[in-house]
Specification:
Layout (H helix, E strand, L loop, with lengths): L2 E2 L10 H8 L12 H13 L4 E5 L2 H12 L4 E6 L3 H4 L4 H6 L2 E5 L8 H7 L9 E8 L12 H13 L3 E6 L2 H8 L12 E5 L10 E5 L1 H13 L8 H13 L4 H16 L6 E2 L6 E5 L3 H9 L3 E2 L1 E2 L4 E5 L6 H13 L3
Parallel strand pairs: 1-11, 3-4, 3-5, 5-6, 6-7
Antiparallel strand pairs: 2-8, 7-8, 9-10, 10-13, 12-13
Helix pairs in contact: 1-10, 2-10, 3-9, 11-13
Length: about 325
């Protein structure tokens, strides 16, 4: 038995999800004729109180489309130094949009209004135009740390007062909402756009949805096409996303519980220097050599993700069972480092 804790993207579609995909009503989505894609876009937009949605192959694409749609060259985005947009999207903000980024040093990736305000540029010829604020919830590199609804509201009010675009990279927003015991509609009116990934904790094989105003999504649809994201009978994939939204949200609490159990085990091990606080389904811990730990646990049939030379990440997901949790805990306790 191989236990894969590298990411919550490693899940496989269940039999029921595959059946939903095979039974999907299809059309050509480049012609806006795929009814299942339309159903997904309308469903996600309604969930978050937005006017419209756009189905895309990945969360990186939805984030980059949002940046391109909201900005122009010479603009600047404020985000945190460990956010996904800055670290894991291949510099797409520069490549696609010709914008620059200013970085906060938040609490495990969570920015404050004070930090944001300090980075707003004055209107001088030699400085870019501060245009947009992007937060990530949950924060991947922050160990799945969570902005509360109140914190998101505070930043939203500030952005409105400064006429700044406010974007949410909500790759794991359902994990955040589960941890907070909140609903998607609790975010209604806070953001100009939200990127929602359904192929992470929710278990769909592919897909993210970008939501916002009708005008924003109309512009984003053209940007999706130029980035190569115009798909044809993509209702096959959209059906998996609909199934995931209908069936896999409530069980996210199980992933959170298992991640916390892993963290408790890790915190008691002599070769673990530190464990980041675990709020959702990500456990990140510090060791002398992440590569060595990855090699040692791989020998026991467990895959983990070296996150830096000294940090290791474990991510729980719907294919990580109670039996796998028990086996992993035993293996970690037996590890000789």
């Amino acid at each position: 038995m191989i236990i894969d804790l590298r990411s919550d993207t490693v899940t496989k579609p269940s039999k029921a999800m595959l059946e939903a995909m095979m039974n999907a009503e299809l059309g050509d989505d480049v012609f806006a004729e795929d009814p299942t894609v339309k159903k997904l876009e309308e469903k996600v937009a309604a969930m978050f109180g937005m006017e419209a949605g756009l189905f895309c192959p990945s969360g990186t694409m939805t984030n980059q489309i949002a940046i391109k749609a909201h900005t122009q060259p010479l603009d600047e985005i404020i985000c945190d130094k460990i956010c996904h947009i800055y670290n894991y999207e291949t510099g797409g903000w520069a490549f696609h949009s010709g914008v620059s980024i200013r970085l906060t040093n938040g609490d495990n990736g969570r920015m404050t209004v004070t930090q944001i305000e300090e980075l707003i540029q004055p209107d001088f010829d030699w400085l870019p135009n501060t245009t947009m604020v992007a937060i990530e919830n949950t924060v991947n590199k922050g160990g799945g740390s969570v902005y509360t609804v109140e914190e998101m509201q505070t930043i939203s009010h500030f952005c409105r007062s400064k006429k700044l675009i406010y974007h949410l990279d909500g790759a794991r927003i359902f994990n955040a909402l589960t941890a907070l015991n909140k609903k998607p509609l609790d975010l209604m009116g806070l953001f100009d756009s939200i990127s929602i990934c359904i192929s992470k904790g929710l278990g769909a094989p592919v897909g993210s949805v970008l939501v916002g105003s009708k005008a924003f999504i109309k512009k984003s649809r053209k940007l999706r096409k130029v980035m190569g994201g115009g798909m044809r009978q993509s209702g096959l994939l959209a059906a998996a996303c609909i199934y995931a939204l209908d069936n896999n949200v409530n069980r996210l609490a199980d992933d959170h519980k298992r991640a916390k159990q892993l963290a408790e085990t890790l915190a008691a091990l002599p070769w673990v220097k530190k464990v980041l606080p675990v709020a959702t389904n990500i456990a990140i811990f510090e060791v002398d050599s992440s590569a060595k730990i990855a090699e040692l646990v791989a020998a026991k049939g467990i895959k983990v993700q070296p996150f830096s030379p000294t940090l290791v990440r474990m991510v729980t997901h719907l294919d990580f069972t109670e039996e796998m949790l028990a086996s992993t805990i035993v293996a970690l306790k037996q590890l000789t480092v």
